[in-house]
Amino acid sequence: MRAVVVKTFGGPEAVELVETEVPVPGPGQVRIKVAAAAVNPVDAAYRAGFLVPLPEGGVLGLGWDVAGTVDAVGAGAPFAAGTEVVALAYGPAPAKSHAEYVVVDGSAVAPAPASVDAVHASTVPLNTLTAAQALDLLDLAPGSTLLVTGAAGAVGGYAVQLAHRAGISVAGVAGPGDEELVRSFGADRFVERGAVADGFDAVLDAAVIGADALAHVKDGGKYVGVIPHAGPPSVRGIRVQVVEVAADGNRLAELVKLVDEGVLASRVARTYPLERAAEAHARLAEGGVRGRLVLVP
User: Fold this and answer.
1) One domain for residues 106 and 133
2) Judging by beta carbons within 10 Å of its beta carbon (0-12, 13-18, 19+), is residue 176 exposed, middle or buried?
3) Do 117 and 175 lie in a common domain?
4) d(C-alpha 30, C-alpha 70), whole Å
5) What distance in Å separates the CA atoms of residue 243 and residue 229, rounded to the nearest whole number?
6) What is the arithmetic mean of pLDDT over 92-103?
7) Based on the structure, what is the number of domains in the chain?
8) CB 191 within 8 A of CB 197
9) Are residue 141 and residue 229 in the same domain, yes or no?
């Protein structure tokens, strides 16, 4: 099969398309024939060598999100062949979801949404789970005030939608051209990037502003970031935490239902074939993407 990998760390030019063995599912695992797989900032971080070393063998696969069809199963796997699914391909491996096939644990898989195509479905797992698990860490009661940085982005946009649904008074930070979009997610207030807005009970820092985001939070408030082990030092008694997304098929299934109910809006900026994966990485590096870039085998 064809798979997108890196053998040396670097910029988009480090991305390669290689031929490799079709993976075989073990006990409790499923093999998914990939229909679409979103490109995320974590893929760029893997490519650049910021998160993990090259594994034994010197090949690191890319791709965390996947939508497709179960093609083969290991003993005890919870899905049957032929089932349309989405999944989070968590952690490092020689081949991941930017490939024609990927093997994942059955516990990371959920039925695909019925209301959107596979390209849109592939944008759901990583970003919705990150947003939902970040909100879990904040543990805000209805009526609390929350500021979401990067509210026009994928994680930030989902966080606004989920917080709004939970009855939280949410403000979204983004560029001036994104106000209509951010308000369409359910933001009660729009804050232009760089503006002063303080006194919030909490901030969800999807834009990775870091220490500067703490200025928006009241004394004794809460901060949650989205880069593991990279939260800013606490000031003024603010509780600082960071989310490290966990594969959770049951939670993902709940989020998929919210997609089908119209609560969560999946967004696609552009699709690329696997052989143009390096171009997708270059476009991601330029910034300003609204919606996800998606690879289609």
Assistant:
1) no
2) exposed
3) no
4) 7
5) 9
6) 96
7) 2
8) yes
9) yes
